Amino acid sequence: MAIQTGINRKKSEVFLSMTLSSTNEETIAAIATAIASGQGGIAVVRVSGPKAIQTAQKVVLTPGSQIWESHRLLYGHVLDANGKERIDEVLVLIMKAPRSFTGEDVIEIQCHGGLITVQRVLEQVLKQSGVRRALPGEFSQRAVLNGRIDLTQAEAISELIAARSQKAAQLAMAGLDGGIQNRITKLRDKLIDYLSEIEARVDFEDELPLLDGENLLQEILNVKLDLKALVEESNRQSYLRNGLKIVIIGRPNVGKSSLLNRLSHSEKAIVTDLPGTTRDILESEIILKGIPIMLLDTAGIRTTEDAIEKIGIARSNKALLTADIILVVFDISQGWQDEDQALLANIPEKIPKLFIGNKADLKNYKANDSFLTRVNHISPKVVFSALTGKGEADLIDALLDICGASTTNDIVAALNERQRDLATLAAAALENMKEVADQELPWDFWTIDLRQAIHHLGEITGAEITEAVLDKIFSRFCIGK
Fold first, then answer.
1. What is the spatial distance between Cα 341 and Cα 343, in angstroms, rounded to a whole number?
2. What is the pLDDT of residue 411?
3. 96 and 199 share one domain
4. CA dihedral defined by 25, 31, 34, 40, rounded to 10 degrees?
5. % of the chain at pLDDT higher than 90
């Protein structure tokens, strides 16, 4: 049965070769760079497939005796369908299989930037026989199917493109370097070895040395612990990719809008002495020490008869339910009021909170100790002045400490949401094996959950995955990647 496990290891390779045989017959093309009117010096049209070079030769007129060899850059002009009008002056980069991103023949036509010209070049390419427009992520999908990169690296490329901060880009690069693939593959290989040992006992137990089930179970549970640790580590670092949604809440006129303006270093919100100035939710996207943050300034929550203000307050309450962190702002010169306490009662308990005593610039705040006496059990708390900036550094440090950013200075590979879900399922399957062992069931029963865990880990790296799942993953990629 150990030999059979080796055969199982090759199942994904057979599937990939079958899938690849169908995709290899088509040549795809798309614009591979971001395009915008008046922006970008160049734009790139990428073509991949068996007719890539032939297509480029028909579309681009290259003067002289330039040789169409791999990894050469040629100069020419893209002509219209009649061969009369010059659409653009271009450079053509040739990359023959397998030395290309997709593992197929790839042509990249470097045009001038903007909107019109690059679209016209793509139109000429798509007019050629056997060439179609690429689907979202199809170039990366072919790279995976051809073994140029694994699935985790393809996802890391997409995350690198979408990175909203330097730390998010560093995390994506760690995945692109194979950090995720290496960690998952090592754990999966261990499980495959354990499965081989167990399967050997199913048919040949009388001919083999006894297998220590207790020791084997412990080894398997150690893999489960490694997976759970990886998931927890990834959960802590997920904000690097996705950012944090932070909602500012408080009574009217306690300085919520002033806090938003101070942290965003701009006059995003109108600030007056009149309660209820903010009638709707205001958003400001900022970066704090490499962490992308969406700040939401909400309408002050109070009892009111104003119809418009009521709508704003209802939206404030709704925003609380989707927040990652809530900044509870109160006027420290007035102390913690009954209205503040009533507002706190409506905030979901499970969402982390940071209490900010604003208006510390007012002279009488030190004499008012009601905050300390009434919410002494609540932590953390920050004394702050949106007017002068006093306490801003403490506020930022406390905020980052809540989300765990202060303990993640060293960037390591972290699983994305899809990968975390699969790792969690694998860990759960391994946990089930403890019950199987406790009931002293035959070796056959051990293989069921073990195979399931191996399958889930294989789905992470792409070693075991269906075409439908691949299509779903890459459909979220941008076109041209």
1. 5
2. 57
3. no
4. 140
5. 32
Please tell me whether residues 335 and 382 are part of one structural domain. Answer: yes
Q: Give the predicted TM-score (pTM) of the model.
A: 0.70
Of 54 and 403, which is predicted with more confidence? 54
Has residue 339 been placed in a domain? yes
Which residue, chain included where needed, has tokens 């941008």?
478
| Alpha carbon distance 299, 250 (integer Å) | 8
Q: Are 62 and 107 members of one domain? A: yes
Are the C-beta atoms of 107 and 121 separated by less than 8 Å? no
Over residues 307-335, the mean pLDDT reads 73
- For residue 298, the one-letter residue type is T
Instruction: Compute how many other C-beta atoms are within 10 angstroms of the C-beta atom of residue 306.
Output: 11
Q: pLDDT per residue over 384-417, tens digit each?
A: 888 888 888 888 888 878 776 655 555 567 888 8
Smallest CA-to-CA distance from 60 within 47, 70, 49 is with 47
289 close to 400: Cβ distance less than 8 angstroms = yes
Counting every residue written for the chain, the total comes to: 481
Q: Do both 392 and 302 map to the same domain?
A: yes
Angstrom distance (rounded) from CA 268 to CA 258: 9
pLDDT at 251: 84
Task: Select from 324, 325, 342, 335 the least CA-distant residue to 358.
Answer: 335
Q: Are 13 and 462 in contact (CB under 8 A)?
A: no
How does DSSP classify residue 80? -
Mode of pairing for the β-strands spanning 106-112 and 86-95: antiparallel
Q: Where are the beta strands (DSSP E) in 193-351?
A: 244-250, 282-288, 291-297, 325-331
Total Cβ atoms within 10 A of residue 235: 14
Residues 119 and 98 grouped into a single domain? yes
- Which pair of tokens denotes residue 278? 């903010």
* Cα torsion 143, 145, 148, 154: sign: positive
Q: What is the pLDDT of residues 106-143, one digit of tens each?
A: 999 999 988 899 999 999 999 999 999 999 999 999 99
d(CA 6, CA 15): 15
Distances (CA, A) of 442 to 35, 72, 439, 445: 61, 62, 9, 6
Domain span at residue 350? 244-323+325-402
Mean predicted confidence (pLDDT) in 55-82: 93
Assess if residue 470 is contained within a domain. Answer: no
Separation between Cα atoms, residue 92 and residue 107, nearest integer Å: 7
Q: How many CB atoms lie within 10 A of CB 135?
A: 15
Whether 8 maps to a domain, the answer reads no
Q: Which of 146-155, 157-166, 292-301, 304-313 has the lowest mean pLDDT?
A: 304-313
User: What tens digit of pLDDT does each residue of 322-339 get?
Assistant: 778 888 888 888 878 888
